[in-house]
Specification:
Elements (H helix, E strand, L loop, with lengths): L17 E2 L2 E2 L16 H20 L5 H30 L3 H11 L4 H8 L6 H9 L9 H7 L4
Antiparallel strand pairs: 1-2
Length: 155
């Protein structure tokens, strides 16, 4: 048979993060960062969140999918928007031509080292997005508008 989960970096989330008695974390829950495909950091955070919810479920003697669904709600609340933005970026750049990649890498020169590091960590909201667009208004003209719209910048 086929090994692994059948997921690919940037493939987005599946139908849910688990079932009765078993919360899913990491790649099995589609929790990898779409920009880089890395998932270790996400899996560690997810494991901590899932573990707390699972411990509460065991204490309450209710390990049903409904009881464990609180973990998925917490996860999506904390990380969902950043990962959706990263997924949208990935979908757009996956089909870029060589010329588009050349232009796209030129845009990266506008990022400060801290902004670039945050982007690689998929921390694309709040102060980061505001500072990036504020210091580089041309980004709104070069294709970042859909991403900044998702992040709530400029509303």
């Amino acid at each position: 048979g086929r090994g692994g989960t059948g997921r690919r970096p940037g493939g987005g989330w599946g139908c849910g993060f688990g079932g009765d008695g078993s919360p899913g974390v990491g790649d099995s829950a589609g929790q990898q960062a779409a920009l880089l495909g890395e998932g270790s950091r996400w899996a560690i955070c997810a494991g901590e969140m899932a573990g707390k919810v699972a411990a509460e479920a065991v204490t309450a003697k209710d390990c049903s999918r409904k009881s464990l669904a609180r973990y998925e709600t917490q996860w999506r609340s904390r990380f969902g928007t950043n990962l959706r933005i990263a997924h949208e970026i990935n979908k757009r750049i996956a089909g870029w031509s060589d010329d588009q990649w050349d232009r796209g890498t030129e845009i990266l020169k506008l990022f400060t080292p801290d902004q670039f590091a945050q982007a690689l960590r998929t921390e694309l909201l709040g102060r980061w997005a505001f500072d990036l667009v504020w210091s580089n208004p041309r980004l709104l003209k070069t294709g970042a508008r859909p991403i900044t719209k998702l992040a709530g910048v400029g509303r």
